[in-house]
Amino acid sequence: MVVEVRLFASFREGRFKEKELELPEGSSLGDLLAQLEIAQKDAKITIVNGSAVSAEHKLSDHDVIAIFPPIAGG
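Request: output the structure for the sequence above.
Response:
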């Protein structure tokens, strides 16, 4: 299956901003995070097709995934 991944803030460093990735059928968001070498504890906000999901969420072909690190501001 092919999914579109959008990384934000520090997750872009040494990676990419947006990219289509091919994953095995039945992959979870956690599997994708492992492939990207992003620790689940560091992915504070994970959104699939506009809805917040957990690492156990099973991905589907053509999903759009946004992954955010912790965000702080002042």
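The CA atoms of residues 2 and 22 lie 4 Å apart.
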